[in-house]
Amino acid sequence: MLALIILFLTALVTLFVGFAKKPLLTLSLSVLGLLGTAAALICQWYHPSDFLSSYEGVNMDGFAILFSLVAIIFTILIIFSGFEQFKSRLDHTADYIGLLIFSLFGAIVMVSFQDMFMFFLGLEILSIPIYVMAGARKDDPLSSESSLKYFITGAFATGILLFGIAWLYGATGTFKIYEIQQFFMEAEQISSLAYVGLLFILSAFLFKIGAAPFHFWSPDVYDGAPAPVTGFMAAVVKLGAFGAFIKLFTIAFSELYDFWMPALTFLAILTMFVGNLSAIRQVRFKRLLAYSSIAHVGYSLITMVVLTNNSALNLWYYLFSYGFATIALITVQMIVNDREDRIEAFKGLGRANPFVGFVAVVALLALAGVPPLMGFFGKFLIFADAISQNPALIAVALLNSGIGIFYYLRTVIVILQKPGVDNEIEQSEFKTTPLQLIVLGICVLAMLFGGGLLMVH
Amino acid sequence: MVLATMLKSGVSLEFYVILATILFTIGVLGVLIRKNAIIILMCVELMLNAVNLLMVAFSTYHGTGDAQVFVFFIMVVAAAEATVGLSILVLLYRNRKTVDVGMFNKLKG
After folding, report:
1. When comparing pLDDT for A26 and A308, which is higher?
2. CB A361 within 8 Å of CB A415
3. A427 within domain boundaries
4. Phi/psi zone of residue A210: left (φ > 0), alpha (ψ -120 to 50 degrees), beta?
5. Cβ contact B101–A132 (<8 Å)
6. What predicted TM-score, i.e. pTM, was given to this entire model?
7. Which residues cross the membrane (chain A) (predicted)?
8. Is residue A430 within 8 Å of A333, Cβ to Cβ?
């Protein structure tokens, strides 16, 4: 709770400091607040009770603390890497950062909720700032279009989610997730109302995480939104939504596992194929990232299909590794800064700016799951955990990883090519800022040595 | 006769559930079929209000007040969403001079 209060105050202070029109002051205050939140969470880890811990709606358990810490790290990285863009509109620097922090607040509520009230509010606090942020480039029709698309799909998903919660309440008579679990354990016959509710809640989650067949909005939204917001959606929003997903389904719906497991198996396979096969023919970089994120949602869903004691940790580690790679790539995309966001614009990056090129290559290889990198360990944990229970699913996942390697390596080749072979594409200058270099440095260190976390794991 | 018995015993839960489901379906169909973004927004509101009705009906049925409190949260969030949604629409109208969602097709591939 203390962490949430600090975070809320940070967002508020950031918004008001914006009046001073001093971007650096805004940046340092917000990052300080985020670090304070992280510190409060770490204290919570060692002393599990604080002065508001008797409140039942939110419980900062180990699961919530791990997910929240990663969300905070990602948000700091995104604020750093997008600072140049935020700064370019002096009136709104603080708005960008403040809204990102409010959204992070929602993500943290979403991984620590104990009843449906907090879950629903967390989801909305997470989503509503992102609707605004997606349209942050006010004079760009593409940005507004992506904002509207995200808003309509998001609001629709909210309606469906609430309808599901209402049916579930009708069946069980409670909103608390542990009481719902208790109810299903003791019930002799589960009424069909509960199944209807479960299906509606499941579809709403699939909308939010962008799993097939509800993925159609995500490429458009990722494409049109400003790059830092795209990074935030891919890293933090996905983390929050997946945290809530696994929490709700492993606690409240654990007794109905036999009912939702086959559906999720099918959806995981469908999502992997849709993501990977559509990514092959993409020519724009953010769309490629969007389809790759759909594919990664497919891999992550495997942790939910095959529930073991390690599922939540595996999911956490996977999203951790995925987030670092995506943030690195989004930062590289901002450095390349092509107006039409073509993958060809990356040509010559490796020679013009070896460090940035190196980070981009490492990030792409990490997403592809090449061994010494963090992405490999993430995939390895998930597959190794699942292979004894569901070998067919893992075979499909491995096949998909193979398809994935194709388009990631194609992009790697573009980056390593000689610059200026054809004259149609003017060369960009690959200008970097010190903050972006810091972000790239942190990401590349994490990707190269993140496997070491497994020692603790 | 039917009306008289209904008035005597109060309207049973089924009627509320059916009404809420019909309203929700109208809202969903509206979002999926209509082309005007403002109508789509209204249909989303209709979906949320159908949920409110369902919540209150179930709350009375179970005899607990939880869901009635939930309704207030839904109202607040619906208001916040409507505000954001309308501002996005105004922004889009300035850029594109239309609110027909069929015209918003620049992002594809």
Report:
1. A26
2. yes
3. yes
4. left
5. no
6. 0.93
7. 62-81, 93-111, 117-136, 148-170, 190-211, 232-253, 259-277, 289-309, 315-335, 355-374, 394-416, 437-456
8. no
Which one, of A107, A318, A117, A291, lies nearest residue A217 by Cα?
A291
The helix or strand, by DSSP H or E, that contains position B5, with its residue range, turns out to be helix B2-9
Write phi, then psi, for A232 (nearest 5 degrees): -65, -45
Nearest partner of A105 among A127, A83, A86, A85, judged by Cα = A127
The count of residues in chain B is 109
Higher pLDDT, A51 or A154: A154
Region at A84 (left for phi over 0; alpha for psi -120 to 50; beta for the rest): alpha
Which pLDDT tens digit goes with each residue over A82-127? 998 888 877 888 999 999 999 999 999 999 999 899 999 999 999 9
Q: ipTM of the assembly?
A: 0.91
- Residue A164: both structure tokens together: 């599901």
User: Residue A359's domain spans which residues?
Assistant: 256-457
Q: What does the alpha-carbon distance between residue A108 and residue A122 come to, in Å, rounded to a whole number? A: 8
Helix (H) or strand (E) holding B90: helix B66-96
The answer to whether the CB atoms of B107 and A124 lie below 8 A apart is: no
Residue A272 covered by a domain: yes
Q: Which of B60, B84, B87 to mutate to test the interface with A (most CBs of A within 10 A)?
A: B84
The answer to the question of residue A366 being in a domain is: yes
Q: Please report residues of A whose CB lies closer than 8 A to that of B61.
A: 170
CB atoms B81 and A155 under 8 Å = yes
Task: List the single range of A70-84, A237-251, A439-453 with lowest mean pLDDT.
Answer: A439-453
- Asked if A156 and B107 come within 8 Å (Cβ–Cβ), the reply is no
- For residue range A298-309, list pLDDT tens digits in order: 999 999 998 888
Q: Which residue has the tokens 């409060």?
A: A40
Q: Is B40 on the interface with A (CB under 8 A)?
A: yes
Domain architecture of chain B: domains with CATH = 2-103 (1.10.287.3510)
Which residue in this structure is represented by tokens 């069929």? B102
Domain count, chain A: 1
Q: What DSSP designation does B97 have?
A: S
In this structure, the number of other CB atoms found within 10 A of the CB of residue A196 comes to 18
Query: Would residue A152 count as lying in a domain?
Result: no
User: Beta-carbon neighbour count of residue A435 at 10 Å?
Assistant: 17
